[in-house]
Amino acid sequence: MSSVDAYQRFTAMLLLFGSLATFSCKKGEVAGTDPVVVPHPVSLSVPANFPAVMNDPYNPLTREGIALGRMLFYDTRLSGLNRLSCASCHRQDIAFSDAAALNNIGESGKILPRHAPALINLAWANNGLFWDGGSTNLESQAFGPLTSADEMHQNLTLLEAELKQVPAYVQQFKSAFNSEVKSAAIVKALAQFERTLISGNSRYDRYSRKESGTSLTTEELLGLSLVKSKCGSCHAGELFTDNGYHNNGIDNDFTNDVLERILMGRLRITNNPADLGKFKTPTLRNVMLTAPYMHDGRFKNIDEVLAHYQNNIKVSPTTDALLFQNGRQAGIPISGKEMQAIKAFLAALTDTDFIKNQKFSKPN
Fold first, then answer.
1. Which of 191, 225, 318, 351 would disulfide-bridge 138, Cβ 3.0–4.6 Å?
2. Range 16-32 burial, b when 16+ CB lie within 10 A, else e
3. Is 153 annotated as a binding residue?
């Protein structure tokens, strides 16, 4: 069972968020005879060239919540057999991706049906998570991999009991949410940490902000222009994603996918025939670190991706109209020189500070 299936089993857990006051900490509140806990609010440090970010009113960022989420992200106790953490499939050195097309390190040993996405700039992910948008926010998304039999396969009640045996965690949950260890607080803490994973200090960013001593080469500037003109409708703005869903022509035959509906993409969630084969647009940021590519990792490198868009698009009724850039034919005309320029620019989107930031690394 994939994390998407597990998510659907736990949609009822969203009811837990209806009692957010349980985890809120306000002056004057009293929990029994315990002293009132007031965590320290935190604002995200947003790069100057980025759009504004809206703070989540139901899970406001705090210093204590972020620290707890970081601890949990790297803790193998979150998996049923205590051998996998979130970081097992989301490695910082490759922009929180996993370098595998379809991973099989989960508890069942089965090959997963979807490629693990990189975790980059999730504070702006306001249009669903998973490749098909099967979860509405980071909090609900976390239940998927945690409980999936093919991934972390954790019983949430047992997880609460296990973490309650760790005095440091008992104190951290109290400090962050004025709560005992609860699964709703676990996913809220994970979401807080993940929202801090901001990548916005590549050489391109410093050029965009006109920082002193930073420039792009003539080839990189050509690549930037080409990305904007040929790819920018989907990989839009400074985030290099529209957070939308598109059929990019990697499949046009879905007859063998009637039961699992993995290839059907967004339709799996909406049941709208217009969403057949549509998948979420990933960011181009750090893309040179996050191979392989697509929802199933079928393309090993950027050259294969560019070749697909150039002349390998498979046409179906929902293939995105934006891909018909070759007259009335599907495809995006790209010369050999232009391919090299695009790759040069994409390399300039690599943010080495992001993959080395100690605030995102394993504690201790």
1. 191
2. bbeeeebbebeeeeeee
3. no
Which residue reads 């010369």 in tokens? Answer: 335
Beta bridge partners of 324: 331
231 is in an annotated binding site: yes
- Report pTM: 0.89
Amino acid at 149: A
Give the tokens for residue 357: 């930031």
pLDDT digits (tens, 9 = 90+) for 120-153: 999 999 999 999 999 999 999 999 999 999 999 9
Q: How far is CA 42 from CA 47, 65, 327, in A?
A: 16, 10, 50
Q: Which tokens hold the place of 345?
A: 């620019």
**Cβ atoms of 101 and 298 closer than 8 Å:** yes
What amino acid is encoded at 136 in this protein? T
Whole-angstrom Cα distance, residue 40 to residue 196?
A: 15
Tokens of 113: 């049906």
How many Å apart are CA 297 and CA 167, to the nearest integer?
41
How far apart CA 50 and CA 341 sit, in angstroms, is 24
Helix (H, G, I), strand (E, B) or coil at 72: helix
Q: How far apart are CA 130 and CA 243, in angstroms?
A: 11
pLDDT tens column, 192-239 = 999 999 999 999 999 999 999 999 999 999 999 999 999 999 999 999
Q: How many CA atoms lie within 13 A of 224 on its CB side?
A: 16
Q: What is the dihedral of CA 294, 296, 300, 301, to 10 degrees?
A: 10
The neighbour count for residue 15, using CB atoms within 10 Å, is: 9
Q: Is residue 25 annotated as involved in ligand binding?
A: no
